[in-house]
Amino acid sequence: MKKASIxxxxxxxxxxxxxxxxxxxxxxxQNELGIMVGGSYYIGDLxxxxxxxxxxxxxxxxxxxxxxxxxxxRFGINAGTxxxxxxxxxxxxxxxxxxxxxxxIIEYNALAEFNFLEYRLGTENYYxxxxxxxxxxxxxxxxxxxxxxxWVDLQPLKTEGQSKSYALTQVAVPFGIGLKLNxxxxxxxxxxxxxxxxxxxxxxxxxxxxxxxxxxPFHSDIAAxxxxxxxxxxxxxxxxxxNPRTKDWYIFFGASLNFKFNVKAPPCYTH
Length: 271
Known about the structure:
Blueprint: H1 2-21, E1 27-43, E2 56-68, E3 71-85, H2 92-97, E4 100-115, E5 128-140, E6 144-147, E7 150-153, E8 169-182, E9 187-198, H3 221-227, E10 249-261
């Protein structure tokens, strides 16, 4: 994922340079409102590499402002759920660890989009393009696991013996690729896939080693039980529980419908 993010960033910068040189060619203003329906999933300690694995339903709303045929700015909110489950893995070490989680993700994003082709909603000549996007978002999450048919919040339990709980509100860098296509004069269709590079390793409540309860006593029996759910629970003190060298990712993907609306310019009065 790290290599892919660097490649997309470099392409993004190269395209943006080309766009800026063509700004005078196609200037206009267009405002759109849109709705996205799709899915979400995560890459992390409980799913190290499988794309689209255990995807869950997701959706969002956005506003897009396009001052030019080649680029646009988008602001939106997305919501989805990510899950991970060691029992679904084919790796024996994950099956032995036996952890699972789910977490709702709500993000607020600001994105810049760069079109490979000139595009404008509602025209016959510029009706299709692929695009790249890059931006910044703020998101909330709350990892939970099931215990006796009840979902338990993991962050307050400090399952790895942390002295301080991780924050449930974080920032991320969203980027990705997509497609835009006109359906009607005022309606467009979009498809996109967008990873989010986060700066936390606790989307799944898994990062470091199994704690030593003699040095860092658990605050409750539930915390001790959920810290080590392996088949040989109690014998893993100071052994590796997760991989702290990599951060977690979450991904949104889906289809969108966007609707153009006109914003009338204010009247100009002359004396």
